[in-house]
C-alpha cells in the first residue's frame, strides 16, 4: 500500500470525546476491515467506513474511550491500515 495516497475525512461529533470520531477513508484499499463500510460514503448521517473496534463506543461493542486523543487514534489507524498482516 506504499504506492497509495490515502484520502479520508474525520468528523468530530458534538458528543466528542464521549463518542468516537467518524472516520471515512475514501481511497479503496482492497482490505476488508478498511473498506468494510464503503457504502456509508455520502450518506446524510455519516458513519465510519472502517471496521475497527476503536471507532465504536463501548455501548456499541467497541473499545473507544474518551481518554483517547485524535493523534493516538490516527496513529493507531494508520498503523493498522498500512501493516501487511
UniProtKB/TrEMBL annotation:
Organism in which the protein naturally occurs: Cucurbitaria berberidis CBS 394.84
Domain UBC core: from-to ranges: 1-85
InterPro entries documented for this protein: UBC, UBQ-conjugating_enzyme/RWD
Name of the protein in question: UBC core domain-containing protein
Domain of life, per lineage: Eukaryota
Amino acid at each position: 500500500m506504499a504506492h497509495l495516497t490515502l484520502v479520508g475525512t474525520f468528523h468530530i461529533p458534538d458528543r466528542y470525546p464521549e463518542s468516537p470520531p467518524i472516520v471515512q477513508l475514501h481511497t479503496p484499499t482492497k482490505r476488508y476491515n478498511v473498506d468494510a463500510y464503503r457504502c456509508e460514503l455520502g450518506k446524510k448521517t455519516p458513519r465510519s467506513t472502517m471496521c475497527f473496534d476503536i471507532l465504536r463506543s463501548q455501548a456499541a461493542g467497541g473499545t473507544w474511550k474518551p481518554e483517547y486523543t485524535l493523534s493516538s487514534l490516527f496513529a493507531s489507524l494508520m498503523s493498522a491500515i498500512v501493516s501487511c498482516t
